[in-house]
Amino acid sequence: MAIDPATPDTTGSGAIRTASGDSPVAAEPGGGAPSAGIGPYRLALRRLRRNKVALAFGALFVLIVVLCFCAPLYADHVAHTGPNDNHVTDTVTVGGEEKDVVSVSGLPIGPTWQGRFLLGADQNGRDLAVRLLYGGRNSLEVGFVATFITMILATIVGLAAGFYRGVVDGVLARILDLIWAYPVVLLGIALGTSLALGGISIGPIELSGNSLLVPAVIIGVVYIPYVAKPIRGQVLGLREKEFVDAARVQGASSLRIMTREILPNIASTLVVFLPLIVANAILLEAALSYLGAGIQPPNPSWGTMISDGIRLIPSAIHLTFVPGAMLVLAVLGINVFGDGVRDALDPRARVKIDAKGQEKFREDPMEIAVEH
Amino acid sequence: MVRFVVRRLISMVLVLFAISVLTFLIFQAIPNGDPAVRMAGRLATPEQVELIRESWGFNDPLWQQYLTTMEKILSGDVISYTQQLNVMDQIKQALPATLSLAIGAGIIWLFFGVVFGLFSAIKAGRFTDRALTVLALVGVSTPVFLLGAVALYFLAFKLTIFPNGGYVPLTEDPIDWLYHMILPWAVLSVLFIGVYSRILRSNVLDTMSEDYVRTARAKGLSEKRVMVRHVLRNSMIPIISLWSLDFAAVLGGGAILTESVFNLHGVGQYAADAIQQLDVPPVLVVVMLGASAVVVLSALTDVLFAFLDPRIRLTG
Amino acid sequence: MTEPERLLDVENLRVSFRTEEGLVQAVDDVSFHVDRGEVLAIVGESGSGKTVTGMSLMGLNRSANSRYEGRATLRGRDLLAASDADLRKIRGSEIAMIFQDPMTALNPVQRIGHQIVEQIRAHEDLTKAQALDRAVELMERVGVPRAKERLRSYPHEFSGGMRQRVMIAMALSCSPELLIADEPTTALDVTIQAQILIELDQLRRETNAGVILVTHDLGVVADIADRVAVMYGGRIVEQGTLDELFYDPQHPYTWGLLGSITRIDRDKPGRLPAIAGLPPSLLDPPRGCHFRPRCPHEFEQCVEVPKLEVRDPSKPGHCDRCWLSIEEKRRLRTVDGDFGLAAKKQAVA
């Protein structure tokens, strides 16, 4: 498909659309705002600070992250049990009354609202609150590592494809298309199931099947095209800009131009994608775990906990509800915060009135639609 | 046009080739994935396993195994390892459920995505817009399987308004079919409505600041006509392409989670089950089916695109 | 000669917008009138409020964040007070507008013919075929060759000049009484510019419509304007006939404008003088005369806003906003034998 060069890109191919090659920063080579003398990032930060809703949800996400990473503290000092310790035959005292952790009929105890079994137990008599925090830690770790992989590889691929064009672009574009066209969840399950069974060893790298890195790598690979494609588009536009020509005339190497001239100009796009990928990675991890292709039992994750709980929904809905609510809150937190970051970085996103009194609302939509 | 079709067909063949090779290799690389061992059962002797290997051709060189499998797939008589049933027949059985899911949900999410997105854009910056934005974000932040399970619990188990999953063929009982499809449609749509409404909102806002919309107002057109004929029409063009790709993905077994939660026995669930058994042929066929759906629909979208936006020429 | 018929009367128009940064007073106490068959040029640099003035008459920048004061009467009806529905009927039929960039002002995915027909049928009860016939007529009238076939074309299949002709045809489709042309030639090649101006001038004569020509180009003004209003920082600083303005300019800003254009009839070597300094911020405008910070002839009284007044009773249509006496103005306005603005003296610390 070709577009008349005189017209803007309106195609939005694929699930992600971005305004081609004109990020707020790209508009000002060198990154300096001409009039006020404030850098675009400082300006964005100021706008973000005014967006109380986004900040509140961002704080919620941070709070969840901190709580989850304090899981061992909670396990040792409050609950006095580990995430994988069974207490099927134990009893717990609630309000002076002795109760079975798991009843004779196999029903786990509900929330006790005290140190031990704060949120109840699961069918194996494991402390739900402890598992929730450890599970969150695993889910978040997978999400963060996957995002790291996605961002690094997508940046490299996008930069290389956009900058060198030609054969490099052709090959990379085909690979991206391949990952794109491959049903994402199927790819995840295929890789997840296979790797979980036997781990993987590629040269010096060796992963065991229950390593957290297995789902992290899979998820990281899945999202590369979503980030690499828009970056490639931006780089294609940026490489024609005068400041790149200027650097080239000064004898800068390709690597230097890419890292020093182009990278700073796509940085805002990367910043916008970061929370979006984290959110989606956490969701995809949950989906893979639900299908048995993510984090492997007995290790907890929000996804595995939900899928364990779903089987017991009629008798013990808290087993689904607790990790489910935590997952949704964490993802919602980062999504709302990310939305705020996007608005802040792109001044066109807000209702703005220019000098002619025309209302301008613009934003770079970037969305990922993957069933999770 | 001929050139376009030819080029698209070539690229489709290439994509299918690459995807099938990739899938094949993934399953070959699986350490415990020897299908013969699984087929022989737990009590099998090494001789029996070897026999199965020989008869299924698992001892052939990899490329030959690939060619044999592909030949069987293309001729339609490929047989799964575990159930030893014809994969094509199985998929034919699963297809109505998946089609029902994809078409119904596709219409629902497109309609509500556009309605909410448009409404949100018209009320940009106001309370309605903020509320719809938060709702959309809740939609994209909720896992489909969680939403599906909770919906099933409350609406099917507790209140018994809806059936507890399963699929009834349309040809058998249209009312019962609808009855069984409503929840899966709604649950699958939630995510997409969230995504689509946000994309449409920003497209509409983009378009509203275009000069030609100002021209349309200056011509004295009614606000409704400006919004529908100029703003919405031009904002819908990218949405259409997005929709056809997502629709293709669901059609090609992409809605694995929804199908599993509601036990629809669709194509995606079939593939998911096969993957868990490390059963290569069904996975290969479903993956290729999905990729073909994506390639064909994206080609159709490009044609539609060129029709909707005269600036675009088809070059493949 | 008959008394010219008054078409539009704008009195004390003030337009302000609430923005993220604060309140912008885009148009500040602007008054002018347009008669039938005459061309009033509104001249100014970008941000002077000239475009906002034009758009405000059509209500195109109405929003929750905009405020209008004053009156703009088109044949007895106040445009500023008109309801959105009434204004919609006026737009396109009684007042039509031609925009700066014909590349973006037409909907890229609709046929030209459809876009013209759409406007005709929004105002008149015609069948599609009748409206199409009129569209062909209009296209021929503005000089589009093979008009009938070209109605089926899309905007991107036209050149810039042709697109602007289409815009003009569209504007004329319901025989408007007032035509607002917002920088109609700015985005075009110089040769095309002249053709479009000739076209506009001819149409004005044929239809006897009043024209408001918004531009920053004094060359365009000299070509077809009857009267000129110079805007600076949201205010009209000087208003008069073409001759009065070009041969007897009263406001220092006008001197600067005249001094910075190329003149073929004068041999003036060296650089064209530009007006030093930047246009005022409408968020935080200077007190008093908006031109004060850039004006070399500034004195104490300039911190008060000068009224737009007639200074020479023999020229009742010529008014300006400057506190200098008429004698001082005539003395100060020539630099090197031509109109121009002297350099502003730097304040000694």
TrEMBL record, chain A:
UniProt-annotated location(s): Cell membrane
Domain of life: Bacteria
Database matches in InterPro entries: BP-dependent_transpt_permease (IPR050366), MetI-like (IPR000515), MetI-like_sf (IPR035906), OppC_N (IPR025966)
Membrane topology note: Multi-pass membrane protein
Gene3D superfamilies, A to Z: MetI-like
Broad class of where this protein is predominantly found: membrane
Entry keyword set: Cell membrane, Membrane, Transmembrane, Transmembrane helix, Transport
Ranges annotated as spanning the membrane: 53-75, 142-167, 179-200, 212-228, 266-292, 312-338
Region of interest: Disordered: 1-32
Pfam families (UniProt xref): BPD_transp_1 (PF00528), OppC_N (PF12911)
Keyword hit for Ribonucleoprotein: no
PANTHER family linked to this entry: D,D-DIPEPTIDE TRANSPORT SYSTEM PERMEASE PROTEIN DDPC-RELATED, OLIGOPEPTIDE TRANSPORT SYSTEM PERMEASE PROTEIN APPC
Family stated for the protein in its record: Belongs to the binding-protein-dependent transport system permease family.
Name this protein carries in UniProt: ABC transporter permease
UniProtKB/TrEMBL annotation, chain B:
Source domain of life: Bacteria
Membrane topology, as annotated: Multi-pass membrane protein
UniProt keyword list: Cell membrane, Membrane, Transmembrane, Transmembrane helix, Transport
Domain ABC transmembrane type-1 stretches: 95-305
A matching Pfam family: BPD_transp_1
Major place of residence: membrane
UniProt subcellular location: Cell membrane
Xref: SUPFAM superfamilies: MetI-like
Annotated transmembrane regions: 9-30, 94-119, 131-157, 177-196, 235-257, 283-308
Family designation: Belongs to the binding-protein-dependent transport system permease family.
Protein name per the record: ABC transporter permease
Organism: Conexibacter stalactiti
UniProtKB/TrEMBL annotation, chain C:
InterPro entries in the cross-refs: AAA+_ATPase (IPR003593), ABC_Ni/Peptide_Import (IPR050388), ABC_transporter-like_ATP-bd (IPR003439), ABC_transporter-like_CS (IPR017871), Oligopep_ABC_C (IPR013563), P-loop_NTPase (IPR027417)
Pfam family, one: oligo_HPY
ABC transporter domain sequence ranges: 8-258
One of the record's GO molecular function terms: ATP binding
Assigned keywords, A-Z: ATP-binding, Cell membrane, Membrane, Nucleotide-binding, Transport
PROSITE patterns reported for this sequence: ABC_TRANSPORTER_1, ABC_TRANSPORTER_2
Membrane topology per record: Peripheral membrane protein
Gene3D superfamilies listed in its UniProt record: P-loop containing nucleotide triphosphate hydrolases
Subcellular location: Cell membrane
Entry superkingdom: Bacteria
Similarity annotation: Belongs to the ABC transporter superfamily.
Protein name: ABC transporter ATP-binding protein
